[in-house]
Structure formats: structure tokens, C-alpha cells
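To: structure subgroup
Subject: Chain for Friday's discussion

All,

I'm putting the inputs and outputs inline so they're searchable in the archive.
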Amino acid sequence: MSDGIKDLIGKELYMSNQYAEFLKQHPYIDQEIHRREDKLLAEGEVNRAHKSILKILRTHCPDLFDKIVELPKRLERIQNIEILEKTEDAALASDEQNVQILVETNDPTE
């Protein structure tokens, strides 16, 4: 291994150790980083569910897709992943009535 690579690795390890030490001294920053990471993961999961439900409804329940006024916007307002998973399951089962009930009763603006 060349001296340049060894120096680069040494600098990276030093910076990593400094960062770890900083987080030990300021645990609230580490907690905030984890909180934000968790929030981003949850938002990603909700976004995936929204897209999946809309795709399933367009394919399996096109009449319902047209029937529910502003379905994409209404669905987007639902942020509870458990409700979205139930809605996704109902859409996969082509259970139009249950999809409609889930969307209409869980839209926070209703």
C-alpha cells in the first residue's frame, strides 16, 4: 500500500474518531440524527404505499379510481402506514367498497 493511501486512511480514521467523540459529548445531536433518519424512512414507506395503491387501483379497480373524487390527493393526506397497508391489501383484493371506506374515513380533511 502506498504512503499516500496510508495517509488518507489515517486522516479518515482520525476524522471518524473525532466525530464519534463529538457525538459522545453531545448525545442530543446523535438522537436528533437518528430521529431524522427514522422520519425519512417512515416518509419513504408512506410514499411507496401511496404509489403502490394508486397503481393497483388504476389496474384492478379503474371504476373506483374514477369514482373517488381527487383520490390521489385524498390518499396522499393519509400518513398512517397501517391504514395505507390495509388500503393496499383491499386494493389488491379488488375490494372496492373497503378501499372507498378506508380512504373516506381516514382522510384527515373529512
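Points worth raising on Friday:
The mean pLDDT is 85.
Residues 27-60 form the longest helix (34 residues).

D.
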